[in-house]
Write a structure and sequence with these properties.
heterodimer; A: alpha/beta; 6-stranded parallel β-sheet; 4-stranded parallel β-sheet; 12 helices; 47% helix; B: mainly alpha; 2 strands; 74% helix; globular
């Protein structure tokens, strides 16, 4: 056999694999989830949704395996090593929630070069060969102010609760909030604290800054911090302002209590942890040979006054409001992006 | 000048100055509110800080990095055991303390039996505790029983109940350190472990009890914090890792070991809350706030340690 013939043979093999993809059969393929952090209720719900989606998909023969791996220290170096292991283990695709948008690019490029499909979501990566299922965090900030402008046409003072300093999500949501306030000059941000997306940290930060603040009309938040802010206002004996909430069950329950007691109205704006199932199905679609644009956008999970009761009924006690995305939802998101 | 030579005075002075600076901004409005908030939130930092102080007093290399994970695990298991049922508060407290003591035994076993440096042993163990907390309840938030929540957020004689708990612990620890044989053993072990051993002090027993006490205090702090804030969260202890060490150092306890300082820990715990409140009130951004907090801490530590050298 000449060298030329060997090359031809290899080319034929590649073509055959390509043809298999076009037939949309992914039943022999294995997907790995590389997750950087598991230490809060949102991530726990995310992992659970992944597991449910994966188990169902595997039992229906859609894919051969969809295993989840979480790094213990939320470090980019650790996650890069994890991705390299996944390449060696022969997975066909890696779904990644990244510890850093840039630090994993080397490992991701290696995976792409080895012929793996890489899909990043929530914590996305900038490496061009990977797909990105991103959240429009700036829009999240703008929508909060837009809602406040609707509810409080006369405007007023706002308190901004930010997330963890130095994380790009915090910068992006805050930029959106400030952009929104610039467009609605009846509002003024009179105070800004970091709540680290944690209820107790937000409660502490707001308690410390409240004595020096004038009357507050509205509080813009980043999720996980609304209930803590409400507790701080209550402990200080102040009127509860309009606090935009996230999707934790205790926040929703507090909202329902307030609504029943005094007709309190607000809005819950968040990203459903079920976005992991969206990432799963998008990956499956890519593996099946679908032409998927590299940049997709996650829809927000919005809970309004009208569907609060339904959301509360659907959310397990102490967890977060969630939706699980189906293959059809993924196809919808893909066709919206085209 | 004798009062200025006390290492703890600097933390209290700093707390007073930041308090006055914040109140100055509001021209007196909210004085009581701010003091009340500082005592409430300072109590948690003070309780874990006093535990960390005992460990640091043991001498170089001794530190407990598992405090956040022990807080999370105790709070998670205690709230799960109570299941929001009324009348279970004491049982929950028992669970939290038992988990804390269990973690303390495990930490010390790693240090003593495997001869691991305490930094490595407690850090590694904390990964196990954190994973157990995740595994035991999957991050679901269980509410504390109503009576317990009312106690944790309530007040007595104008002071928050959690601050009373922190004060009682402070008085007990102060008495133990200054007046009891165990306290003397601890200080002697921290000053020179070899000399202490040769002098007949049961050094390993002292170390063992110290690691148990710090873990029990972390368990208690986790239990109180979860009751205070409406439930345990998986990331609830995270900020207490650095805080617990910072309050010890700012409070004037020697980082080299051998000298404890209970009042300083409380002053530093109040200061740590007040300095963030002050910078937030003046509208400092997160970057400026971190830089200033760091600079102020360095300043206080220098002030406290140079005074000690002169006396």
């Amino acid at each position: 056999m000449t060298r030329k013939m060997m090359l031809l043979g290899a080319a034929g093999l590649v073509a055959a694999t390509g043809a298999a993809q076009a037939q949309s059969d992914t039943s022999g393929m294995r997907i790995a989830l590389s997750n950087n952090y598991a230490g809060n209720s949102w991530r726990q719900a995310m992992l659970q949704t992944w597991q449910e989606t994966a188990e169902e998909a595997v039992s229906e023969g859609v894919v051969a395996a969809a295993d989840a791996y979480t790094t213990s220290e939320n470090q980019a170096t650790e996650q890069a090593a994890q991705i390299q292991n996944m390449i060696l283990q022969g997975y066909d695709a890696i779904v990644v929630n990244a510890a850093s948008p840039t630090a994993l690019n080397g490992a991701i490029a290696e995976a792409c070069n080895a012929g793996l499909t890489v899909v990043s979501f929530d914590g996305i990566v900038t490496e061009p060969c990977a797909w990105r299922i991103a959240v429009d965090f700036e829009q999240m900030g703008r929508e909060q102010v837009a809602y406040l402008a609707e509810q409080l046409p006369e405007g007023g003072n706002l308190l901004e609760i930010r997330g963890l300093a130095g994380v790009f999500v915090d910068e992006a949501i805050s930029a959106g909030v400030h952009d929104g306030v610039a467009q609605n000059d009846q509002f003024e941000i009179v105070g800004s604290v970091n709540g680290d997306w944690a209820q107790d940290v937000a409660q502490k930060a707001v308690s410390g800054v409240l004595p020096s603040l004038p009357e507050i009309a509205g509080v813009v938040t980043q999720g996980g911090d609304g209930y803590g802010a409400a507790q701080a206002f209550e402990a200080a004996g102040r009127d509860t302002p309009l606090i935009i909430l996230g999707n934790r069950q205790d926040e929703l329950e507090w909202w329902a209590e307030q609504r029943d007691a005094n007709g309190y109205e607000t809005l819950s704006l968040s990203i459903a942890p079920g976005v992991a199932s969206l990432a799963f199905w998008v990956t499956q679609q890519i593996l099946a040979g679908e032409d998927v644009p590299k940049d997709l956008t996650v829809p927000f999970l919005t809970i309004t006054q009208d569907d609060l009761d339904q959301a509360l009924a659907d959310t397990p006690e102490g967890s977060v409001a969630n939706v699980s995305y189906s293959r059809e939802d993924a196809q919808q998101v893909i066709s919206d992006a085209r | 000048m004798s009062v200025l030579s006390k290492p703890w005075i600097w933390a209290w002075l700093a707390a007073l100055v930041t308090f006055a600076a914040t109140i100055g901004l509001t021209s007196g409005r909210g004085t009581g509110e701010l003091a009340y908030a500082a005592l409430s939130f300072g109590a948690f930092a003070a309780i874990v800080g006093m535990g960390q102080m005992l460990v640091i007093t043991l001498g170089p290399g001794n530190v407990d990095l598992s405090i956040p994970a022990v807080m999370t695990l105790s709070a998670t298991l205690a709230l799960k055991a109570m299941g929001s049922e009324p009348g279970t508060a004491l049982m929950g407290l028992g669970v939290a303390l038992a988990v804390g003591i269990g973690a303390g035994i495990a930490n010390y076993a790693l240090i003593f039996l495997l001869r691991l440096p305490p930094i490595i042993a407690t850090l590694a163990a904390s990964l196990v505790y954190q994973s157990l907390a995740i595994w035991s309840n999957r991050g679901l938030r269980i509410r504390p029983p109503e009576g317990l929540a009312d106690f944790a957020t309530g007040r007595m004689l104008g002071l928050p109940n959690v601050a009373w708990v922190g004060l009682v612990i402070a008085v007990v620890l102060w008495a133990v350190l200054e007046r009891s044989i165990w306290g003397r053993w601890l200080l002697a072990s921290g000053q020179n472990m070899r000399a202490a051993r040769l002098a007949g002090i049961p050094v390993e027993l002292v170390r063992a009890t110290t690691y148990l006490v710090v873990a029990a205090l972390a368990g208690l702090a986790g239990y109180l914090l979860a009751s205070f804030s409406g439930g345990a969260a998986l990331n609830m202890g995270a900020e207490y890792l650095l805080t617990s060490i910072a309050v010890v150092v700012i409070g004037g306890t020697s980082i080299a070991g051998g000298y404890s300082n209970v009042p300083g820990v409380w002053g530093a715990a109040l200061f740590m809350f007040l300095v963030v409140s002050m910078l937030n009130s003046y509208g400092a951004g997160a970057g400026v706030r971190s830089v200033l907090t760091g600079a102020i801490i360095i300043g206080i530590v220098i002030a406290a340690s140079t005074r000690r050298l002169r006396t």
